[in-house]
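Could you help me review a protein record that somebody else here produced? My question to you is simply how this chain folds and whether the tokens agree. Thanks in advance; the entry in question is below:
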Amino acid sequence: MRIQAPTSDEPIASMPWDQFLGAGAGLALAFTLLWALLGREGRSSWADFAWAVAIGLCAALFCALSEGWTARRVAVAALGLFWAGRLAAHLGKRLSHEGEDGRYRAMAESLGTGYRTFMLGFFLLQALMAWLFSLPFFVLAQNAAAAFTGWEIAGLALWLLSLAGNNLADRQLAAWKADPAHRGKTCRQGLWAWSRHPNYFFEWLIWCAYPVMAVGTPALPWALATAALMFVMVRFVSGVPFTEQQALRSRGDDYRRYQESVSAFFPLPPKSAS
């Protein structure tokens, strides 16, 4: 396989943005219909499942419609579908066994009768986020250069490493939870001794692989923006804050001690033994 720099000088403005905008409108409609079916207490968590599926479907659609190099389009679609399928399977299994996420139960209790109206806005926000996070697949698939670059191979390596880290964190947490003696206690083993949320860290790192793949192409700023948005979302909006609030409700002082000694996001040596 020949490795070279991209040869296409096609400006970003010539990309088929009408396809991307059309996908956004379709997602808004789809998530509004989902809200009518699921946007009530006890079923709202399925919005997360739908979010993952929507990104995978958008990745496949954009790659199918793109006029970029076929091998690249297939590879980009495979990355999007595999990521989405893995996350959707994980969420579907958890929802089937555990039911509504504690974050949504807490929102339902605090909002009361206004919960269903609030959830309409939430479902539309999920549609917006799915649309924005499908952007790397859209822009990467447009590259017509008929060879994979060294940056694309490096990005794939980072993607695979990040996925392996995410899987390892999930397995370590599942093994901890499987021991009845650990009920009500916080996992402090493996990656969880270095980061309170290694799963979120490696999830974000997956999205950092797309800017690496986009180096030297007009897709780079858009892929960087998406990676930055993912960091803000998981670290400050919907990931770490909500998870920590739920952990404090369920594990109290044990989790507060954990917060004092272990990094919130980036893996770092613990400050002290807990």
Summary: The mean pLDDT is 89. The chain has two domains: 15-147, 148-274.
